[in-house]
Amino acid sequence: MIGNLALVLGGGGAGGNAWEIGVIAGLAEAGRDVAEAADLIVGTSAGATAAAQVRSGLSPAELLDAILTPPVRVVGAREASTPTLPMSTVFERMRSIGAGATSALEVQRAMGAFGVESDAILESGAAQRRAVVAARLPITEWPQRPMIVVAVDAYTGELAPFDQHSGVDLVDAVTASCALPGLSSTVDINGTRYIDGGVRSSENADLAAGYANVVVLAPLGGRNGVVPEGQFEGLRRFPGADLDSQVEALRRQGSHVDVLTPDAASRAAMGTNQMDPATRIAAARAGFVQGKRDASRVSF
């Protein structure tokens, strides 16, 4: 085996990111500090942000406290808005792409084409989007301990796993991993454009192959989980791209895999709009309670 423990942090919007931090803090409170124990962290989309936060050197309690302490807002200040397409239109297009595809790679290529097509509207907000991502990260340099940030090549649809040896700026890598077609512009890195790693898989747990133990935090619940109606439900996953298939493959290869998905209270806290930052505090609190309660389910 390559190492003892890989921690996989899946995508799931602002609420999903906060839930993951809450769960990690709850696990640590209960004596199961997966953040410290992880030999590798794999982060996708919101999970890429969480991965960089967890690898920042801040403790899980400090990361949770940062979510539970709303930023001070200057009276009279106005927040600049980035251009966007209607969210309902974006997710309907994503469902249409999945319904018409015959393979996972075809989905990824079509999603990349959708992302490039949407750049005509969204690219003017690219610099602001990058600044927003950078503001969420306690660090802007790659950590020394192994971490993979997952994106997808918008032109080929192929997997793009960035790490400290990829020669890619950490903020750019995380921004790319969070670049959901239709909602964020594609991210240009060395002449290639990239989109959200969740287009390939919400978790990309297969990248943890070779580790004796794998802990997966999946805000969207995997194939058989209950995704609240409103956004991510109904998106098509081909075999191998869904979490259940990836977990089964890891287990066949000899890994012990524990998967945590949001319980009823956490799903309620995350709401039907997982992209809404207003869900973060409630989702983090619910995740913390769930993490403490489910600590006995996690072994490594």
In terms of topology, how is this protein built?
Elements: E1 3-9, H1 13-29, H2 34-37, E2 40-44, H3 46-54, H4 60-68, H5 87-100, H6 104-122, H7 126-136, E3 147-153, E4 159-162, H8 170-177, E5 187-189, E6 192-196, E7 211-217, H9 243-252, E8 256-260, H10 264-270, H11 280-293
Parallel strand pairs: 1-2, 1-7, 2-3, 7-8
Antiparallel strand pairs: 3-4, 3-6, 5-6
First-residue to last-residue Cα separation: 13 Å
**How much of the sequence is in beta strands?**
5-15%
What ranges have pLDDT less than 50 throughout 5 or more consecutive residues? Answer: 74-79
Mean pLDDT: 92
Category from helices, strands and their pairing? alpha/beta
Q: Quick one: overall form?
A: globular
Q: How many β-strand stretches?
A: 8
H/I helix tally:
11
3D architecture notes:
This protein is of the alpha/beta class and 300 residues long. It has 11 helices and 8 strands. Helix content is 41%, strand content 14%. Strands 1, 2, 3, 4, 5, 6, 7 and 8 form an 8-stranded mixed β-sheet that branches. Helix 1 (13-29) runs parallel beside helix 3, helix 1 runs parallel beside helix 11 (280-293) and helix 10 runs antiparallel to helix 11 (280-293). The two termini are 13 Å apart.
